[in-house]
Design a protein that fits this description.
The protein is 76% helix and 3% strand. With 340 residues, it is an all-alpha fold. The protein starts with a strand and ends with a helix.
Length: 340
């Protein structure tokens, strides 16, 4: 066990394996980020990439690395970390490896909110607030529908799957009835891509995610008590439903921000916490390793999306393929456990 101290007021006890795994994941994400900055139509060596990042470069390299490629790489890290953290929160609250915003329907809510905004406005100008509103409204609706003297994980997942199906049908209907140009914009956005995102998108995403982290941090201090069970947490003085609602809102803001800016990048929130848990061999879900795993997955998936195919494909398509295989694996493992 390692004790990490921040000043003299804050300290954390972290298992050594968790700390080492997290550092290795961060190193892997950094290596993938440098590869993302180096590989492209203009090939740049890793050494020149590092020299450019620290300011010792030429104007041409600065344009390619800093202006063109760096926002995309940083957004991949930021979005992946946000999705990994959101998945860890949902899976901790539901105590279920399928308790992900992809499955519960919050991504579908953000998508529906964005599509409605695009149809109403006729452009993507207000898609970010529309997606945020859709995601948060869906989270509150799922929470209220699942509430029966408290919210239990299995009921939350079942209600979320039902809401996802209804929102999917609504979104498909709206896209079919929309003008061709609006439907085309919705379809492009729905693929989930980092193409065309700039520094202004990075600033907007970082600001919103920072607000979400404050909400999550305020409620997350008592998440460990919730792991003991609702009754035990209440006995310790934790306001269970208030903390749970705060975590749901914060985690929904994380996923809705990603969906608003890049479209749905699915399965990262589902897979990251479980992959991190297996690497750290911890009994429960851990937030920081999950976020590190999410950042690593999105950056690597974006590298594949950019360079592994004859044409550029959205990163969301890569994560769907990988995540689909992962979901089948999880279901097979769960089925074998039930048979035993």
């Amino acid at each position: 066990m390692v004790v990490l101290r921040l000043g003299g007021a804050l300290s954390w006890r972290v298992p050594l394996r968790t700390l080492v795994t997290t550092l290795l994941l961060c190193a892997a994400a950094a290596a993938a980020a440098i590869a993302g900055l180096a590989i492209g139509k203009v090939q740049i060596s890793a050494i020149d990439v590092v020299r450019t990042l620290v300011g010792h470069t030429t104007p041409a390299l600065e344009t390619v690395v800093t202006d063109w490629r760096l926002p995309r790489v940083l957004l991949g890290l930021l979005f992946g970390g946000a999705l990994g953290l959101a998945g860890a929160i949902f899976q901790s609250l539901t105590r279920n490896p399928l308790g992900s915003p992809d499955v519960i329907g919050f991504d579908a809510g953000a998508y529906a909110g964005a599509v409605i905004t695009i149809i109403a406005v006729g452009s993507t100008a207000l898609v970010i607030p529309g997606a945020l509103a859709g995601g948060i409204a869906t989270a509150l609706a799922v929470y209220l529908l699942a509430y029966r003297r408290g919210v239990h994980g299995f009921r939350l997942i079942v209600v979320g799957i039902a809401v996802t199906s209804m929102l999917g049908a609504l979104t498909a209907y709206l896209v079919l009835k929309a003008p061709v140009e609006v439907a085309r914009m919705s379809a492009i956005w729905a693929a989930g891509s980092l193409n065309g995102l700039t520094w202004s998108d990075l600033r907007a995403g970082a600001a919103t995610i920072a607000v979400a982290l404050v909400v999550v941090g305020w409620s997350g201090r008592q998440l460990t008590a919730l792991d003991l069970g609702d009754d035990a947490a209440a006995a310790l003085g934790v306001r269970v439903e208030r903390v749970r609602l705060g975590l749901l809102v914060g985690a929904t803001m994380l996923t809705a921000t990603v969906t608003a800016l890049a479209g749905p990048i699915t399965f990262v929130a589902l897979a990251s916490p479980q992959l991190a848990r297996r690497l750290t061999r911890s009994a429960g879900i851990r937030m920081v390793p999950s976020a590190a795993m999410g950042g690593c997955l999105v950056v690597v998936a974006d590298l594949v999306a950019q360079h592994a195919f004859p044409a550029l494909v959205p990163v969301g398509l890569v994560t769907i393929v990988v995540g689909g295989c992962y979901l089948v694996w999880v279901l097979v493992v769960q089925a074998r456990k039930e048979i035993r």
